[in-house]
Amino acid sequence: MKKVVLLVVAVLTLFSFSAVQAAETLNGAGASFPYPVYSAWAYTYHKATGVKLNYQSIGSGGGIRQITERTVEFGASDKPLKSEELRKDKLIQFPAVIGGVVPVVNIPGIKDGQLKLDANAICRIYLGEIKSWDDAAITALNPGLKLPKKEITVVSRSDGSGTTAIFTDYLSTACPTWKEKVGSGTSVKFPVGIGGKGNEGVANYVKKTNNSIGYVEFAYAKQNKLSSIQLKNPAGKFVSPSFETFGNAAETADFDPKKDFYLMLNNAKGKDAWPIAGATFILLATEKKEANAKTVKFFDWAFKNGDAKAKELVYIPLPESLKNKVREYWKANGIY
User: Fold this and answer.
1) Which fold has domain 101-252?
2) Which parts of the chain register pLDDT below 50?
3) Domain 25-98+256-262+279-332 has CATH 3.30.365.10
């Protein structure tokens, strides 16, 4: 009898321990772009609170799928969902951190930040209409800069990605021909060039291929020491990618809680705004109040304590005004 009692106590103890462990783990999955910053925040959050974050970097599509199927407590996507899509699957969403997409080039003799381009030039390069770096459309933007008579190697993503969604949305909104012929999305049929898998693949192709151009997340441009460009924004100013120009885009963009923050952030109106940017988003299931409360508790902590680490890893924290909009959105949905 004593053995039976001891066995029952042991089983109950194990069950209780497992339940506590499960309660102290927050499971999420999705976009690969924010994985480094979420991991860094999770490490510090666990030390501060004892709660673990298990985040699987499986891509934006996978994150949307897993939260729709309710196999995780939160999904993550660089491509925001429209309110009607969210309502259909009983989801809500909010931005977590800002990223920017940066055209990068490898042109012998041209240094980082020297080359100037506008939306029309980038659009025509990616359509295959501008084939050489000394094309009149490019030289007109760069008086005094000696550009080679060399064929441009165009590099794009071969896999579906939020980075491509942001970049092609920019081209579609800035260039009617692109919208008509190619369109936007996580995966499109690029008219010319070669494809690399992931930001890493595009960065590597540009790095090793003379006279090439590609597009990568800002963090990958910095980490791989790639030459970025100055890009003309809607205000008519040539700007360089930086924390300041991305921050200006976020500050002047109209993130509307009534539209579940749906916004690609491209072509923001700020005078100093970088024109190709986007937030990465968190998706929650409306009925999972307890899980949602745990999730927003983590991101609220990150909003208060994680900005320095985000910048260290070359991410742009949300402006304080946007963080407060997100908190009001949480309150409106009964999870804060």
Assistant:
1) D-Maltodextrin-Binding Protein; domain 2 (3.40.190)
2) 1-22
3) no
pLDDT score recorded for residue 252 = 84
Classified as helix, coil or strand, 163 is: helix
167-172 long-range contacts, Cβ below 8 Å, gap at least 24? 167/101, 167/215, 167/276, 169/264, 169/266, 170/101, 170/119, 170/264, 170/266, 170/267, 170/275, 170/276, 171/119, 171/122, 171/123, 171/126
Measured CA to CA, the distance from residue 265 to residue 281 in angstroms comes to 12
The predicted structure's pLDDT at residue 119: 96
In terms of Cβ atoms closer than 10 Å to its own Cβ (0-12, 13-18, 19+), residue 57 is middle
CA-nearest of 92, 98, 61 to 332 is 92
Q: What pLDDT is stored for residue 79 in this prediction?
A: 87
Pairing of strands 277-285, 91-106: antiparallel
What is the token pair recorded at 173? 């909104």
The pLDDT of residue 314 is 87
Count of positions (residues) in the chain: 336
The rounded distance, in Å, linking the Cα atoms of 238 and 233 is: 6
Residue 325 has a pLDDT of 97
The order of strands in the sheet holding 230-232 is: 116-117, 230-232, 238-239
Nearest in space to 335 (alpha carbons), one of 95, 94, 96, 97: 94
Report pTM: 0.81
Phi-psi region of 30 (alpha: psi -120 to 50; beta: other; left: phi over 0): left
- Rounded to 10 degrees, the C-alpha dihedral 260/263/264/266 comes to -160
| Residue 10 pLDDT | 42
